[in-house]
Amino acid sequence: MKIQELKLEGFRSLQDVGWPPQDLNIAIGPNASGKSNLLRALELLCISAQGGLGKHVQMGGGIEPLLWNAAVDSIQLKLAFSPPAEHPASRWEYHLELGRIGKTTAYRVQTEVLGDFRRVVTGERLEPFKLLERQQQRAVVYDEQQRQLVAPEDLVIPEETLLSMAAGPYAGNRLIPTYQRHLVLLR
C-alpha cells in the first residue's frame, strides 16, 4: 500500500495540513515545525487499526496533548492510499475523527469511514462505496454487496476504532482485514 495523501486537522502542532507523499520523502525544517508530529499521526493511524488506540492515548496523557494548541475539541485524520491489485481503479480512504468528551482528557471515536472514494472525487457520486462507517456508538460494517451489518451499540468500544474490531465478530467483508493489515504496516 502506498500513501497517496494524508490530511490532518487539529493534531498536535498541525492545525490543518495536507501531505501528498512521493516515493522518497525527506522532512526538513527547524525544531518544533511538525516533522515528528507527521510521523506521530501515521503511528496513531497504525495503532488505531490494531486495537491499541485507547491504551496509546491514555499512556500519552489523554486526548488533550494530541489536540492542536489545546484549542480544538477533535482531531481529524484522513488517509488516501493506493488500492489493492484486485481493485486498481479505486481510491481508498480511511477517515477518523477523535473527539474530546467535555473538558476532560477523555475521548471517543466520533466518526470513522473506510471506503472507495474514487467516484466521489470525480463527482459521479455523493457517497463512497463503504466497507465500514461509524457515528459515535452507531457502527455499520458493509458486506461486498453494500448490505449493512449493524453492530450492537453496547459492543462498540468508544475508545477503539471499528476498523480494529471489524475483523472479529462483525467480519462480513473480506476486504476489511486487508486494509486493516495495510494500515498496521504504516509503521
The CATH architecture classification is 3-Layer(aba) Sandwich
Q: Which residue ranges are poorly predicted, with pLDDT under 50 across at least 5 consecutive positions?
A: none
- Tally the structural domains: 1
Distance between the termini: 12 Å
**CATH topology value:** Rossmann fold
Count of alpha/pi helices: 5
Q: What is the radius of gyration? A: 16 Å
Strand order of the largest sheet: 2-1-3-4-5-6-7-8
Mean pLDDT across all residues, rounded?
A: 87
Q: What fraction of residues sit in β-strands?
A: 25-35%
Largest sheet: 8 strands, antiparallel
Write structural notes for this entry:
Helix content is 22%, strand content 31%. The chain is an alpha+beta fold.
Keywords, separated by commas or semicolons:
globular; Rossmann fold; 5 helices; 22% helix; 8-stranded antiparallel β-sheet; alpha+beta; single chain
SSE inventory with pairings:
Blueprint: E1 3-11, E2 14-19, H1 35-50, H2 53-59, E3 74-81, E4 92-100, E5 107-116, H3 118-121, E6 129-135, E7 138-142, E8 148-151, H4 162-165, H5 175-184
Antiparallel strand pairs: 1-2, 1-3, 3-4, 4-5, 5-6, 6-7, 7-8
Helix pairs in contact: 1-5
